[in-house]
Specification:
Blueprint lengths: L8 H5 L7 H4 L3 H33 L7 H53 L3 H6 L2 H43 L1 H47 L2 H6 L3 H53 L5 H43 L22 E8 L10 E8 L4 E5 L6 H8 L7 E6 L2 E2 L5 H6 L1 E4 L10 H5 L8 H10 L3 H4 L19 H15 L3 E5 L7 H15 L3 E5 L11 E6 L2 E6 L1 H7 L2 H11 L1
Parallel strand pairs: 3-8, 3-9, 6-7, 7-8
Antiparallel strand pairs: 1-2, 1-4, 4-5, 9-10
Helix pairs in contact: 3-4, 3-6, 3-10, 4-6, 4-10, 6-7, 6-10, 7-9, 7-10, 9-10, 14-16, 16-17, 18-19
C-alpha cells in the first residue's frame, strides 16, 4: 500500500474525512439501505434514455407503418414503461434521501457529543490557549458543515458518480465515437478543476477560522457585557466585532468566488464538449448512420453525464469544506489532557473526620508561563479535621494550592499526599468527589435554585436541599419568591444578586458533605448581617472535616486552627492568629493594616 506521501493530491486533500468512518460504520444497516436505494435510483435513471429510444424508434419513427390503433397501443405501453421508471426513480430517491439524512443527522450528533465530552475532560491548561467561543464554533458551525456533507453532498456525489459511470458506459456501447470525444473533454476539464479545488480547500479552512474568531470574540464580550457598558465601550466593541466580521466575510467571499469559478468552468467545459459531440451525432442521423431514437438516447445520456459532472463539481467543493471542518474537530479530539488517570488507583479513607493533606517540597509553574514559578518548595501539612487558613499577598500561590489539590494541574516537583497516598495515584472521580469547593466567584447554572444547590448531589431529596439552603441562609430570600426553590435563575444566575449567588454556592458545597472543604473568600459577596449568619453555618460545616480557607479579610480566619502565610510560593509563617500577631511578621503587618482601617 502506498504511504500517505505517495497518494494523489486529491485524495490527500480529503484525507481528514477518513476520520469520520468510525462514526459512519456504526450504522452499517442504514448505510447499506441508502446505497441500495441509491443504486436502484441510478439504474432507473439510466434506463430512462433507453426507454425513450424504444419510444422514438418503435412508436414514432415511421407514421406510415401499422394501423393508428395499434401504433397508439404501442405508444401507450412505452409511456407506461416510462411512468413506471419515473415512479421507481421517485420512490427510491425519496428512500435514499431519508436514509442518508438519518445517517447524516446521527453521525453529526455522535460527533458533536464525542467532541463535547472530550473537551469537558480537558484540564484548565487546554482553555489557556483556546477560547471557549472557538470551541463552541467548532461544535456548531463545523458540525453543521459536516452534516451538510454527510446528509446530502456524499449521497449526491455517489449517485452522480454512478450516473457518470453508467452514462459513459452506455455512450461507449452505443456511440463509441461520441464517447471518445466526451472522455477527452472531461479529462481536459477535470485537470484544471483539481488545481482550483486545491485552492478552494485552503480558502474553506481560512473562512471557517475567521468565523470561529468572530464567535469567540462575541462570546467573550457577551459574557462581560456589564463591564463593557459600564466603561461605555459598546461602540468600540461593536466596531471590533465588525472588523472581525468583515474579515470573515472577505474570506467567505474568496471561497465562494473560487467555488463559483470552479462550478462555472466545469459546467461550461462539459456542456461545450457534449454539444460538440451532439453536433456530430446530428450529422450522423442526417447521413443515415444512426436512427433518431439512438440520437435521442445519446442526447439524454450526454445530459446525464454533463449534469453528473456539474453536480460532482459542487460536491467536490462541499467535501473540501467538510474536510476542513473535520480537520478542526479532529484537532480537538486529538488534544490529550496531561492529567491522566492512574493505572492502579488507590482508594481514600472513608472514615469520618476529614482527609489528611500534605504538600512536600512542591514546585509548580503554570504551563502557559513556565518561566514564572508560582510555588517554590512548598511544605504544608494539614491534619484530618483541621481548619487551616491561607493568607498572603496576591500572587503568593493561594489559589494555585486549591487547583493542585483538585488536580487541575500536576505538580512540577515534589508531591501532594492525601491520607498518606500520592494525589496522582487517586482516581480523578474519587478525588474530586471527596472535595467540596466554594469559589470566590460563585458559578450558577441556568435552571432552578434547587437544581443549582443539588448540582453536587443530583439524587438529593427535597428535604436535604432545603436543609442545606437553610444552613447557608438561602431560604431567607427564596421563601419570598413566588416559585420558591423552583425559581428560574437565568443564564449564569443573572436574576440573582452577588450575595444570593454566593449563598447558593455555599449551600451546594454543604449539601455535597465532602470530607475536604475548600473555601475561597466564601463570604466576600455577603453583607455584614448575612456574613455573620453564613459564617456560623460555615463553622458548622467545617466541623468533622478538613477545611482549607483562602481569606484576604483576616477577621474571617481568626478562629482557624492554624494560619499559614504564603509569600512568593513559600510558607513564611505558620501559627494561630494571636501567635502570628505577636511575632511581628508579615501577618502582623497585614493585620495591623486591616484592623486599623
Amino acid at each position: 500500500m502506498a504511504d500517505r506521501g505517495q497518494r494523489p493530491a486529491a485524495v490527500r486533500r480529503l484525507q481528514p474525512l477518513r476520520e469520520l468512518l468510525p462514526y459512519v460504520v456504526r450504522y452499517r444497516r442504514q448505510v447499506g439501505l441508502a446505497l441500495l436505494f441509491l443504486l436502484l435510483a441510478a439504474a432507473a435513471t439510466l434506463a430512462l434514455p433507453y426507454a425513450v429510444k424504444l419510444l422514438v424508434d418503435g412508436g414514432l419513427a415511421d407514421p406510415a407503418e401499422g394501423a393508428p390503433g395499434d401504433r397508439l397501443a404501442a405508444i401507450r405501453v412505452h409511456f407506461l414503461l416510462l411512468f413506471a421508471l419515473a415512479l421507481l426513480v421517485g420512490l427510491t430517491t425519496a428512500a435514499r434521501f431519508y436514509m442518508v439524512s438519518w445517517v447524516g443527522e446521527r453521525v453529526t450528533t455522535d460527533l458533536r457529543q464525542t467532541v463535547y465530552a472530550h473537551v469537558l475532560c480537558q484540564s484548565p491548561q487546554f482553555f489557556e490557549t483556546l477560547k471557549t467561543g472557538e470551541v463552541l464554533s467548532r461544535l456548531t458551525t463545523d458540525t453543521t458543515v459536516i452534516h451538510n456533507a454527510l446528509g446530502s453532498s456524499v449521497s449526491m456525489g455517489l449517485r452522480n458518480f454512478v450516473l457518470l459511470l453508467g452514462g459513459l458506459t452506455m455512450l461507449l456501447s452505443t456511440t463509441p465515437r461520441l464517447m471518445l470525444t466526451v472522455a477527452g473533454s472531461v479529462i481536459l476539464v477535470v485537470l484544471p478543476a483539481v488545481l482550483i479545488g486545491r485552492r478552494l480547500r485552503k480558502l474553506s479552512r481560512a473562512s471557517q477560522d475567521r468565523l470561529a474568531e468572530a464567535s469567540a470574540l462575541a462570546g467573550e464580550i457577551l459574557n462581560a457585557v456589564a463591564v463593557v457598558q459600564s466603561y461605555t465601550r459598546e461602540s468600540a466593541e461593536a466596531a471590533r466585532f465588525a472588523r472581525v466580521g468583515e474579515e470573515a466575510f472577505a474570506a467567505s467571499v474568496r471561497r465562494s468566488g473560487t467555488r463559483s469559478a470552479l462550478t462555472a468552468f466545469v459546467i461550461i467545459g462539459v456542456f461545450g464538449s457534449l454539444l460538440y459531440g451532439m453536433y456530430g451525432g446530428v450529422k450522423a442521423v442526417l447521413a443515415g448512420e444512426v436512427s433518431a431514437g439512438e440520437l435521442s438516447q445519446t442526447a439524454l445520456y450526454a445530459m446525464v453525464v454533463a449534469s453528473s459532472v456539474a453536480v460532482l463539481a459542487e460536491v467536490w467543493g462541499d467535501l473540501l469544506r467538510a474536510a476542513g471542518a473535520t480537520e478542526r474537530l479532529m484537532e480537538l479530539l486529538a488534544a490529550r489532557s496531561p492529567i491522566v488517570e492512574p493505572v492502579r488507583p488507590i482508594s481514600l479513607s472513608t472514615s469520618a473526620g476529614g482527609l489528611q493533606v500534605s504538600f512536600q517540597r512542591v514546585c509548580f509553574a503554570y504551563p502557559s508561563r513556565p518561566e514564572q514559578p508560582v510555588l517554590q518548595g512548598l511544605d504544608l501539612n494539614m491534619a484530618a479535621g483541621q481548619t487551616v487558613a491561607l493568607v498572603g499577598p496576591s500572587g503568593a500561590g493561594k489559589t494555585t494550592v486549591f487547583q493542585l489539590l483538585q488536580r487541575f494541574y500536576d505538580v512540577g516537583d515534589g508531591a501532594i499526599l492525601i491520607d498518606g497516598g500520592d494525589l496522582r495515584q487517586v482516581g480523578l472521580g474519587e478525588l474530586r468527589s471527596r472535595i467540596a469547593v466554594v469559589p470566590q466567584e460563585a458559578v450558577i447554572f441556568s435552571g432552578s435554585i434547587a437544581d443549582n444547590i443539588a448540582y453536587g448531589r443530583p439524587g438529593a431529596s427535597a428535604e436535604e436541599i432545603h436543609a442545606a439552603a437553610a444552613a447557608a441562609f438561602v431560604d431567607e430570600f427564596v421563601l419570598r419568591l413566588p416559585e420558591g426553590y423552583a425559581t428560574f435563575v437565568g443564564e449564569r444566575g443573572v436574576r440573582l444578586s452577588g450575595g444570593q449567588r454566593q449563598r447558593i454556592a455555599i449551600a451546594r458545597a454543604m449539601l455535597k458533605n465532602a470530607p475536604l472543604l475548600l473555601l475561597d473568600e466564601a463570604t466576600s459577596s455577603l453583607d455584614a448581617a448575612s456574613e455573620r449568619v453564613v459564617q456560623g453555618a460555615l463553622d458548622a460545616a467545617m466541623a468533622g472535616r478538613t477545611t482549607l480557607v483562602i481569606a484576604h479579610r483576616l477577621a474571617t480566619v481568626q478562629r482557624a486552627d492554624r494560619i499559614i502565610v504564603l509569600e512568593h510560593g513559600r510558607v513564611v509563617e505558620d501559627g494561630t492568629h494571636a501567635a502570628l500577631v505577636a511575632s511581628g511578621g508579615l501577618y502582623a503587618r497585614l493585620a495591623a493594616l486591616q484592623f486599623a482601617a
